[in-house]
Write the structure tokens for this entry.
Amino acid sequence: MQTVSFSMNVNGRAETLTLDPRVTLLDALREHLDLTGSKKGCDHGQCGACTVLVNGRRINACLSLAVMHEGDEITTIERFAADGELDALQAAFVEHDGFQCGYCTPGQICSAAGMLREIAAGMPSHVTADFSETDIALTDEEIRERMSGNLCRCAAYPNIVAAIRQVAA
Amino acid sequence: MKAFSYTRATSLEAARKAVNGGGEKFIAGGTNLLDLMKLQVETPSHLIDINHTGLDAIEATAEGGLRIGALVRNSDLAADVRVRDKYELLSRALLSGASAQLRNKATTGGNLLQRTRCYYFYDTTKPCNKRQPGSGCAALGGFNRVHAVLGVSDQCIASHPSDMAVAMRVLDAVVETVKPDGTVRNIPIAELHTLPGETPHVETVLGHGELITAVTLPPPPSGKQIYRKVRDRASYAFAMVSVAAILDVQKGEVASGKMAFGGIGAKPWRDEDAEGKLHGGADSGAFADAVLADAAGHGDNDFKIPLTRRVIHAVIAQATGKDSQHGI
């Protein structure tokens, strides 16, 4: 069985791993780097629990091979409170009760962080009416559409939207 | 996942030279391929990672169109100012598909080659002629709500799942490929996908190791552009029926038009002959009759035929301003 050596930067640390190419980015983070904040929900890119940021963009870590991330900069939920203080999104999720069981929450927060960057970059969504507009107002409808890749089995959606709205304001 | 070996290609030449005529697959975004590999629907012996081959630019062509590199991510293509401005239906189609996370990974070339979402294709305990030729089709007598009503055969009724390809079909895009020996060819998108017939496991005209390098759009069309998608959820769901339309509206009537369809065909569907019915004050009923003349449901998906008629009517009404209801 072939193994492949590669390096990536995870939460500000250079990591070099030698892995079976079958190992997903999610399993590399959880099983080889002990970063268990990112969660495995469906393992098929349907639920969003594994969402991490790669070079600042949100992706499903379960649908990507770790070896494909040579040289990439990975940010997981563990980075958000690295100095012991909750990040603004984390604090807003607590304040608005944006979770119940909490299993989807790391993915929700990483996804929300990626989404706020997409809004800042003027990227439109399915519900954006005017595509010539690059200063897009983050309405509840926009938040719901842009966060549709993150499922919450406890259905804390109204509170998740409220938390994100507060941080975006 | 079955074991495989892995090569990171750092040039187009290296990628094509890594093909040896065996069980290789190219991997780009991987959002569909890895999903299928986990289920052992896809079992490549070798993966050639093409993410570092530089095919990620969107460039203006001399003819006034756009050349989109095969590795341009769906989210970047949808957000590109030139696409938003001149090919709005392509942006709309892309943004109606998948989730933001998936669009950040999924590529232009990969989207064209994504496999069907037929439940039985995904379930390796069930017969499927597409997955295992000659094993039968469990969808014909089974659950077939998501299946196609046009272009199917008695071997396979799977629908093509892409939104992006439907938009590219109506835009008359051309797909550029390179073969392992370096030969380049340009394939009109109408000719890229094949119908199931007796060989549903063959889905495109591409040979083994033939790599999509770019998709070229002709100069922007004139007329109103609409992408309308009807699905079971408001977001993050495949189309039951989708329509990509370019309609020239004069004095409140459709003077001419083009329409392509998703969710109803074995491939991204378009009927250029039927589009004659859209000339000179379109009769949406006559156009729908012509498009759906050969449509056949298989039980659960019968509803797609009347639904397609209604979506055609709604799109024409939206374009001509005769109907203010946009949220079908």
